[in-house]
């Protein structure tokens, strides 16, 4: 299996607080036992980097002010993904028992999708990314892996999704607004997200 490590360099994230939050609950699915591997790794530079590997299933980064770069280590080869106006949307989806057919269906030209073990990480760059036009007109931001089926997470078998978490960093200067809409969740906590262009009033 190819080994990929994702390193997000963030600004003013209180990683110590994040680790405490990560160990102190926050789960909505009733599971109280956390794997020690779910903590922030000891080799992450303090207040600078968050290393996302296949053992890091949850990271709470409520204090992020900006993301300055994303570095991807793919089988030892380092690549840097430059942010566009420090606006990124991250989604971490933990899945299991996924068939090859389901995995193929998740791949989309709209998203750059990388796999680290059974943790799938989607990175959508805004604005200036090739996919910004796909959601500009108040389209629901969802991972519509199969556009011929129901959009978004409904396209996946809910039994394969344990929890879903979004990490947002959308500064006011970006020209975009983020809106939330509670929905009938498939995992007890899912919400739909709208991203629309900011207007003068």
Describe the fold and architecture.
The chain is mainly beta and 201 residues long. The protein has one domain. 10% of the residues lie in helices and 38% in strands. The chain contains three helices and eleven strands; from the N terminus they run βαββββαββαββββ. The chain has helices at 15-23, 100-106, 132-135, and strands at residues 4-11, 49-52, 66-74, 77-81, 87-95, 112-116, 119-126, 137-141, 161-169, 176-182, 191-197. A four-stranded antiparallel sheet has the order 2-1-3-4, with no helix packed on it. Strands 6-7-5-9 form a four-stranded antiparallel sheet, with no helix packed on it. Strands 8-11-10 form a three-stranded antiparallel sheet. The longest helix has 9 residues, at 15-23. The N and C termini lie far apart (50 Å).
Question: In sequence order, what are the helices and strands, one letter per element?
Answer: EHEEEEHEEHEEEE
Going across the biggest sheet, name each strand in turn: 2-1-3-4
Number of helices: 3
Q: Look at the helices and sheets and give the structural class.
A: mainly beta
> What is the radius of gyration?
17 Å
Number of domains: 1
- Termini, distance in Å? 50 Å
Fraction of residues in helix: under 10%
Main sheet specs: 4 strands, antiparallel
Mean pLDDT: 36
Number of strands: 11
Approximate strand percentage: 35-45%
- Overall 3D form: globular
Low-confidence stretches: 1-99, 105-198
Protein name: DUF4352 domain-containing protein
Region (Disordered): 19-46
Biased composition (Polar residues): 33-46
């Amino acid at each position: 299996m190819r080994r990929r490590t994702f390193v997000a360099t963030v600004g003013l994230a209180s990683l110590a607080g994040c680790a405490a939050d990560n160990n102190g609950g926050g789960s909505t699915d009733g599971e109280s036992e956390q794997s020690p591997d779910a903590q922030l790794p000891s080799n992450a530079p303090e207040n600078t980097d968050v290393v996302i590997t296949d053992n890091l299933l949850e990271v709470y980064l409520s204090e992020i002010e900006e993301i300055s770069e994303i570095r991807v280590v793919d089988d030892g080869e380092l690549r840097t993904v430059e942010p566009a106006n420090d606006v990124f949307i991250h989604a971490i989806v933990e899945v299991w028992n996924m068939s090859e057919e389901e995995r193929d269906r998740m791949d989309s030209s709209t998203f750059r999708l990388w796999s680290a073990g059974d943790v799938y990480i989607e990175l959508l760059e805004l604005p200036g990314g090739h996919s910004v036009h796909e959601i500009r007109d108040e389209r629901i931001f969802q991972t519509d892996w199969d556009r011929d089926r129901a959009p978004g997470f409904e396209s996946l078998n809910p039994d394969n999704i344990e929890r879903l978490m979004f990490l947002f960093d959308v500064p006011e200067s970006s020209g975009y607004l983020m809106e939330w809409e509670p929905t009938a969740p498939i995992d007890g906590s899912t919400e739909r997200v709208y991203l629309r262009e900011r207007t003068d009033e």
